[in-house]
Design a protein that fits this description.
The complex is a heterodimer.
Chain A lengths: L1 H32 L4 H8 L8 H37 L3 H4 L6 H42 L4 H7 L1 H11 L5 H29 L6 H35 L5 H26 L5
Chain B lengths: L2 E11 L5 E11 L3 E5 L6 H8 L7 E6 L6 H4 L2 E4 L11 H11 L5 H10 L13 H13 L5 E5 L7 H14 L5 E6 L2 H4 L5 E6 L2 E7 H8 L3 H8 L3
Parallel strand pairs in B: 3-7, 3-8, 5-6, 6-7
Antiparallel strand pairs in B: 1-2, 1-4, 8-9
Helix pairs in contact in B: 5-6
Classes of the chains: A mainly alpha, B alpha/beta.
């Protein structure tokens, strides 16, 4: 039944999430186009630009909209996931969800998996959008100062460019990048479980379930932040100074997020099975 | 064993003053159409929600087919809530597929036939349908299951008298005679003719559980008239 739940959860979310992705693609194209104005080509040449045209103003404005759109899509996707969870689990649609012949584990896991998948897809697309925009800007800047294309320059000088990136970001080896993938997944699942957990904790309130959910969300976030920044960070810094402990703060943050995710999962399971009170 | 539902010492208290169901003990057999009757706030919907696992009892227990409410009972209980609970952005045809995917006892051809009889286009989105038509779609989905127990909470409250007749006909014609139906309503006069037994609830307590024939014989009046007498303000 888990597969069927995932299938229907995916079907009921893909339209809105695809609209967000299409919006992101459109904003990326407009963002790239916003650099193709006289203002930017003069600026890249190092010339002073005094007389701005309407097109130049529009380009600058479009860039502002692009930044707002990126932030909006990432925050919007979290809000959409929260509203979707609330409607499916705790509003009138919850009457169907909680009377399906499935276990509470299957209900929670299907939501968590599909919500995490969409959030990670949207985050990756947002990063890709920024990469495309940066490449586009660099290509314009390259074309006004150098001959040839940026892509052929990158391919020709790839070893020195990658070495420079590794040096700049203190990346010891490419396995570091590989190991950042689990960290990203944990962080995504933690974000979605925080939403799911907060909505479920909100059900413990008699009359103000939505308000209680919002308060729970901020409470979980603050507790995570407090543990991370006030307890773990000083502990790790002290350990690092004393004996050169290489188990970094980032790794400890991942462990903390895993612990909070597991606690919220079982708390949500307990509330759904023992305290459910659909109105 | 002919018992389908066993309720023992069931209590649901929202707080110390608000006890929706109070120490109820009741056994319901298979193959009956049972009216769950009582004034507003008598605990009908709370009892139904506990039977469907949507509320957790404060004390006592419910067993359906020998199981506590859970995935096993939900596979064999067809529940119609007193709310519009289907996803409004979905088409009726998508809901048919949804029910077919999750309920092994769902007969999609039966549902399509009933939709056709009522002139409901399966390609319509739920949000484009009137309130009454939405209720009919919900009822069709529920009654197209071959369940052991049908629990219908106010199935005729929001529809016109003509639709009421169709709904009652649908209920009678589409349920498995081995199964039982629990029908909660205020509109006793409209459903009295189809009922085998009735349960009267007041302030969360069981006032009466008897067959319709016994009530008529012993009280010399219809269930509707007897209900009005028992619950006279």
């Amino acid at each position: 039944m888990l597969g069927k739940l995932i299938k229907h959860e995916w079907k009921s979310t893909y339209k809105i999430c695809c609209v967000m992705l299409i919006f992101l693609a459109v904003m990326t194209i407009l963002g790239c186009l916003s650099f193709r104005t006289q203002f930017w080509s003069e600026a890249f040449k190092g010339n002073d630009v005094n007389n701005l045209t309407i097109l130049d103003y529009s380009g600058i404005l479009m860039l502002v909209f692009y930044v707002i759109a990126i932030i909006g899509v990432i925050c919007g996707s979290l809000i959409y996931i929260a509203v979707h969870f609330y409607k499916g689990l705790y509003s009138e649609e919850g009457y169907l969800t909680h009377t399906l012949p499935v276990s509470s584990h299957e209900i929670l896991i299907s939501r968590l998996l599909v919500g995490s998948c969409w959030y990670i897809i949207i985050c990756i697309m947002a990063i890709l959008s920024i990469v495309i925009l940066v490449y586009s800007v660099m290509a314009i800047a390259f074309s006004v100062t150098e001959s040839g294309s940026l892509l052929s320059y990158i391919i020709a000088n790839r070893d020195s460019i990658f070495a420079s990136i590794r040096e700049s970001y203190n990346i010891e080896s490419w396995s570091y990048v590989f190991w950042s993938i689990p960290s990203m997944i944990v962080s995504t699942v933690y974000s979605i479980m925080t939403i799911l957990g907060a909505l479920t904790l909100g059900q413990l309130s008699g009359k103000h379930k939505v308000m209680m959910s919002i308060v729970s969300y901020f409470a979980i976030t603050v507790v995570q932040s407090l543990i991370n920044n006030i307890i773990l960070l000083p502990v790790m810094l002290t350990a690092s100074m004393n004996n050169g402990n290489s188990f970094g703060w980032n790794n400890l943050t991942i462990v903390l997020n895993v612990v909070i995710t597991v606690v919220l999962y079982f708390l949500s399971y307990f509330i759904i099975t023992k305290k459910l009170n659909l109105e | 064993m002919n018992d389908l539902v066993e309720i023992v010492g069931l209590t649901k208290a929202y707080d110390a003053r608000n006890i929706a169901v109070n120490n109820m003990t009741l056994t319901l057999p298979k193959g009956r159409i049972i009216g769950l009757l009582g004034p507003n706030g008598s605990g009908k919907t709370t009892l139904i929600k506990m039977m469907n696992g949507l509320l957790v009892p404060t004390q006592g227990s419910i067993k359906i087919n020998g199981h506590f409410p859970g995935a096993e009972t939900k596979a064999r209980v067809a529940y119609l809530p007193d709310k519009t609970y289907l996803n409004h952005s979905q088409k009726v045809s998508e809901l048919l597929v949804f029910y077919q995917d999750f309920y092994q006892d769902f007969e999609i051809d039966k549902a399509k036939k009933m939709l056709e009889n009522l002139g409901i286009d399966p390609s319509s989105k739920m949000k484009t349908l009137s309130k009454g038509t939405k209720e009919k779609v919900q009822l069709i989905l529920v009654m197209s299951r071959n369940a052991d127990l049908y629990i219908l909470d106010e199935p005729i409250a929001g529809v016109d008298p003509a639709a009421r007749d169709y709904i009652l006909k649908t209920i009678i014609n589409n349920y498995n005679p081995e199964a039982s139906i629990i029908l909660a309503t205020h509109l006793i006069g409209d459903i009295e003719s189809v009922l085998d037994e009735v349960i009267f609830l007041r302030y969360g307590q069981l006032v009466l559980y008897n067959s319709v024939d016994n009530i008529r014989e012993q009280q010399g009046k219809s269930v509707d008239a007897y209900f009005r007498e028992v619950f006279a303000c």
